[in-house]
Structure formats: C-alpha cells, structure tokens
Amino acid sequence: MHVLVVGGGVGGPVLAMALRDRGWDVTVVERTPADGRGSGSWFTVTPNGLSALAAVGALDPVRALGSPTAGNLVLGATGRRLGTIGAGAPLTDGTPALSFRRPELAATLLDLAVRRGVEVVERARVTTASSGPDAATISLDDGTSLSADVVVGADGIQSVVRRAIDPQAPSGRYLGLVNFGGVTVDHADHGLTPGVWTFVFGRRAFFGALPIADGRVVWFANEPRPAVSDHERATTSSDEWRAHLVDLAAADDSPFADLIAVGRLDLAADNTHDLPSVPRWHRGRLGLIGDAIHAPSPSSGQGASMALEDAVIMGDLLDRHADDPASAFSAFDTARRRRVEKIVAMGARSSSAKTPGSMQRVVTEAVMRVVFRFVVTERSQAWVTGYRVEEHLVPTP
Ligand SMILES: Cc1cc2nc3c(=O)[nH]c(=O)nc-3n(C[C@H](O)[C@H](O)[C@H](O)COP(=O)(O)OP(=O)(O)OC[C@H]3O[C@@H](n4cnc5c(N)ncnc54)[C@H](O)[C@@H]3O)c2cc1C
C-alpha cells in the first residue's frame, strides 16, 4: 500500500512513521524547503502527545530537544498569584511535559521518517486532491501530480485537502488575539521559576514565559485587538512590534517589559484562529488529521498533542482497513471526534478569558482564583493530559 501524506509539520511525519513501520510505502509532500522552516515559536507537548511520539519510537530521538515543563503558574497584573495548572502526570518512565521549538521538532521528526525509508518531496505545494475508485491523486503547483492508494491531509489549519473533501468546509475563526513570541538570553534576574510557564493576565495583554534548561527564557504575548492586516504587518518592523509589546507590558507589575526589551522576537503579529468543527473528515480515499480538522486556540496548549495522537490512531486504523480506506476514515472519525472537539471548545473558553471584556470587567482576579482552585484542576484536566494513545489502539484479535 502507498500513502501520500500532505504536510511535514507535526502530525504528518508521525503518521508517515506509523505506516512505514507497518510496511507501507510513504511519501510526504511539504511545501517549504528544509532550510525555510526556521521561524516559529515554542509549544509544550503534554504527556498525552508524548505517548504518541513514544508509540512510533520517536520520543527518545527528540527528547534532548525538549525542555522539561512542570506546569503553569498564573498571576494577575499586580503579581498576585491566581493559581496553578499542572502539565499532566508524567509518562510511566517519568518523562514530564516537554517544550519544543516547533520548527525544530517538525524538522527532526521528518528527518527520522526519512531515515526509516519515508520519501519526502519538498518545495511542493499541493493545490488540490481527488479520489477515484482505485487511487487518490494530488496536484502540485509545478503542474505535476502524484497518485497513491490513500491521501491523508496533515496540512494544517488552511488545509487544501479539507477543501478537496468538502468545498463547503469551514475555515479558521479569528479569536480576537494577536500572538507574538520570542526568546531572551542573558537575563538571569527575571525572578521566574525554571521549567514552569508563568502566565500573567495583564491589564492590556496576556503574557507567558518559560525559563528553559539552557538558561534562555522563552516568552509570548497575546494582545486582544482586531486582526493585523497584511499591510500593517508589511510596514511594521520587528523592533517596532517589540517596543509595542514593552509598552503593553509596562502597565503590569511583572518582569515582561524588561524581558521583552532585551529579547529577540521570533513570531510577530500572528492572528490567532481556531477551527471548532469540520463536518466532513473524509471522502473516498481522502482523509485528514491534526489542525486540518480541529485546530484549537493556542491557549489550549493541545494542538500539537492532538495532531500526534491523531497520527498514531490514523496509522493503526489505515493499516487495519488497508483494503478499505473509507472504513478506516470512518472508524477514525468515531474514535476521535468527541475528544478533539471538546478540547477545541475548552481552548476557545481559555482564549476568551484573555480578551479585554473578560479581562477587565467580567472575570475579576477573585473569580479566577476560585476557577483555578476548584474548576481548572489537575484532576479536572486528567481526561486531556492523562490520555495514553496505546490504550486506544484497536487490540489485535
Ligand atoms: C503560537 C502558537 C502556539 C501554540 N502552542 C501550542 C502548545 O503549547 N501546545 C500544543 O500542543 N500546540 C500548540 N500550538 C498548535 C500547534 O502548533 C498545532 O496544533 C500543530 O502544529 C498542528 O500540527 P499539524 O501537523 O496538524 O499541522 P502543522 O504543524 O501546521 O503542519 C502543517 C504542514 O503542512 C504544510 N502544508 C500546508 N499546506 C500545504 C500544501 N498545500 N502543500 C504542501 N504542504 C502544505 C505546512 O507547511 C506545514 O509544514 C500552537 C500554535 C501556535 C500558532
């Protein structure tokens, strides 16, 4: 059997490995060149996502890239502690959540897949996909096409394969937050706890920072505002955005203004979208995984982990229903939809707590303290981070 995986981001290479390890011929088609994936911010993969990496033997090879992350401390604009959010119980071998630089993790996973015999076609943008009785076909932007038994779109929130499956499929929804991310080196005096994300519900924006193992501090800012236009992005320099963030942070009693002032901006003015529910996940020999079908707000901290879970489950089901991909895709929908849509809804709620109406008027710091004490607890989040992918693979009869 031959599968074409569209997208070599987070989920694509893991699906590629899952099927290659089962003897499939696998081709990953990725629009960016290997040296063009350098930009991007950091994210945390919680133990549920790590269990998916372990299931394809990819956890050990990427472990050294990840910075152990114990959890999240939430503060108010005055520095008052509002609560904590755990990052989930570690894996049985003790591995806690790990924070990665997204492009570094994606590139390493793709390299691993290549070493196992996966073919990668880079600098190739898929323009459309179709399903026939015996094969599925993708068209590339150079005018050529490729065919295989199955095509799986792991092509992110703006998925072309999703549109080929259903031209009426929804697109991403703007969440009212613009995202920035960066790194600060040589600033030992920040007062933050190493290995813990510190989040601040600031007066004008939401901030997060993580001192990682090598002493650098990774940070992000979410500014509630209308989406940044292409014109504004093209006419605003990195230094101007950074100065703007310093100004936003100066309103709070926190280390963020200082941290950002001496830091480097890696991700500038990224409009934040989510994709709550996609009615059709498959058609004929075409299927989808990851952000292409269920992109959560970055506030959920679960997008990468869900894409990784999807990849392992999809690999298992496709191999079990190798003669009938439509049955595999249907079983995947049944297995995954409830969980992933619930997580996207949870992410949207977290996001809305960062918008000004919520921040300044409705959700007072006192209410947040109650929420973090009684509602968002390690126990209440266990269904998210306590999921272990190997427990959800169909047992071999
Ligand atoms: C700022 C930010 C912070 C985040 N924080 C977290 C976090 O803390 N924890 C977490 O779990 N998740 C987080 N996420 C979400 C996470 O990055 C995504 O959910 C995850 O990357 C989805 O994986 P994916 O494989 O589905 O898609 P992606 O990783 O987006 O990969 C899609 C790939 O497809 C390629 N592609 C797209 N279209 C085409 C085409 N037409 N032809 C060929 N190739 C194509 C792209 O170049 C890309 O390489 C965050 C996201 C953002 C933006």
Structure description:
The protein is globular, with a radius of gyration of 21 Å. A hairpin with a 4-residue loop joins β14 and β15. The strands form four sheets. Strands 6-5-14-15-16-13-17 form a seven-stranded mixed beta sheet, with helices on both faces. Strands 8-2-1-12-19-18 form a six-stranded mixed beta sheet. α1 runs parallel beside α4, α1 packs parallel to α10 and α10 packs antiparallel against α11. It has 14 helices and 19 strands. 48% of the residues are buried. The mean pLDDT is 92. It has 397 residues and is α/β, with parallel strands linked by helices. It has a domain of 222 residues: FAD/NAD(P)-binding domain. 35% of the residues lie in helices and 26% in strands. The structure holds flavin-adenine dinucleotide. The site of flavin-adenine dinucleotide has 36 residues, from α1, β3, β13, α9 and α10. This is 2-polyprenyl-6-methoxyphenol hydroxylase. Keywords: Monooxygenase, Oxidoreductase. Pfam families: FAD_binding_3. It comes from Williamsia serinedens.
The main sheet orders its strands as 6-5-14-15-16-13-17
Ligand species? flavin-adenine dinucleotide
Write down the overall mean pLDDT: 92
Under the CATH scheme, which architecture of the domain at 2-38 and 47-64 and 95-172 and 275-351 and 381-392 would be assigned?
3-Layer(bba) Sandwich
Largest sheet: 7 strands, mixed
User: How many E-type strands?
Assistant: 19
Organism: Williamsia serinedens
Domain FAD-binding: 2-344
Keywords: Monooxygenase, Oxidoreductase
Protein name: 2-polyprenyl-6-methoxyphenol hydroxylase
